[in-house]
Amino acid sequence: MIRLARGALRPLPLALVPLCVLATTAAAQQPADIDSLRREVAASRARLDDERRRLDELEAQLASLGPAPASSPAAQPPPAAQPPPAPPPPTSAAPTPTRLRLLDISLNGLFAAGASTASDDALALLEAGGHDPHQRGFTVQNVELSLLGAVDPYLKGEAHVVMQIDSSGETNVELEEAFLTTQTLPHGLQLKAGQYFTDFGRQNATHPHSWDFVNQPVIASRLLGGDGLRGPGARLSWLTPAPWYSELMLSVQNARGETAASFFGADGEPIAGHPREHPGVHAPDDMLVSARWLNSFTVTPHATLNLGASAAFGPNGSGNDASTRLAGADAFLKWTPANAQRGVPFVAWQTEIMARDFEAGAFVDETGVAHAAEELRDWGFVSQLTWGFRPRWAIGWRIDRAEGEDSDVLDASLDPLRDRRTRFSTALTFRPTEFSKLRFQHDFDHAPFLAGLPDESTDAHSLWIQWEFNLGAHGAHAF
Fold first, then answer.
1. What angle do CA 446, 229, 115 make, to 5 degrees?
2. Which of 14, 72, 427, 451 has its CA 20 to 30 A from that of 397?
3. Rounded CA gap, 335 and 343, in Å?
4. Separation of alpha carbons 400 and 379, rounded Å
């Protein structure tokens, strides 16, 4: 049995070298680079904390094994009987040491319980997000198994498998994301390929456990889909040489399935009464193309502003050459004073605006009535303010607005996915540690389509309690 010295398991001074290098570099560069360097320092600190935890676990395992058993003196030959030591083998014959590749594995559980003045049937329409609580009582919103790590010096991989339990008690498992990204491309370029969330707006590419509220914004559920806009494809990003943080992203993905709700969508799923079908991919214009431009500015020594613009276009299957165009703009501003302790107090404001032009093709309905082609327009916004008022505590306010123009086929006020909706939310969040969370939220919904349901009014109040736990090392979230 080989014994390891405890000191060999604590290379902490060497692990601090990247932080020292980043700090020295930040002092020598222009102020415009400070924001990017801060991100790298934060990421390095997170990785260092993970390594410290791993080292502690290895030391505990080593201590539990006890000391190595000493050889019995009687079993050893006398010194005179021992053969002379053999000469050391040539350097070329020395065994190659085994490399240890670390893989971050985590399990995140997100659950909710609540009550509402709306019935379960109405809640299933009000809460259009795939991870929203769709019923009174308890909901398993999201159980996510994540794996992250370096594939080799050139690539790193990431995968997220999600499990949910629907209202009928059935367990659903889906591959949410699985992709690789390059680490060594020159000129600020990076390539991502696989199954991934589309970089459209600020919230779409994030996972539910990182949201500031229990449910998905209304406009995001409508235009990007209940499970977010995502699919298999490839994305090329470029970190420009601008004097501030500026990144351009261009992505090509499949346009089919429920995760491409504004495009081909799920088979046979209509929009405003217009049926859609997926004829297959025959040309490049049968793909979903998206672009995003993200910029970050240091407004003051204690405030950072992010500004983004997004666009996406692709076919929608409602007719020959019928297409959909999405456009969006987003802003995020965070202020933390110089005397902040453990990251608080802070104030964060976030706003997203989205719009959709849907070219709906002509069709003949089941009764033989012909309907002409038309263009459907939808738009909306979400704006939220979060205040971290003391360590581990934060309170947030959010307003959602979404509406669509009337269709010649279906009145928007009768369509849960296109009616005029308004929602006001207040959420109080308590984080005992970085591995757990408890949240209380109240929603007030105003939705005209509810009047068409039995015993429902156009207004609904809902109360939710959400709790979360995280096991293992989870990747750092984007700022």
1. 35
2. 451
3. 10
4. 11
Chain position carrying tokens 């209940």:
226
Question: What's the average model confidence in pLDDT over 324-340?
Answer: 96
Residue type, 150: A
Residue keyed to tokens 């190595």: 68
CA gyration radius, the chain: 27
Region for residue 317 given its phi and psi (left: phi exceeds 0; alpha: psi -120 to 50; beta: otherwise): left
Helix axes 17-28, 34-65, angle to 10 degrees: 170
> Rounded distance, CA 122 to CA 54, Å?
47
CATH class of 107-472: mainly beta
Between the CA of residue 307 and those of 129, 244, 247, what are the distances in Å? 25, 12, 11
Hey, what are 297's tokens? 């500015």
Average pLDDT, the chain: 85
Position 431, amino acid: R
Question: What residue segments make up the domains of the chain, in order of their start?
Answer: 107-472
Residue-wise pLDDT for 155-171, tens only, equals: 999 999 999 998 888 99
Q: How confident is the model at residue 61 (pLDDT cuts 50, 70, 90)?
A: low
CA-to-CA separations, 97 to 6, 94, 100, 101, in angstroms, rounded: 19, 9, 10, 13
Instruction: Identify whether the C-beta of residue 315 lies closer than 8 Å to the C-beta of residue 255.
Output: yes
Sequence-distant (≥ 6) Cβ neighbours of residue 415 within 8 angstroms: 272, 404, 407, 449
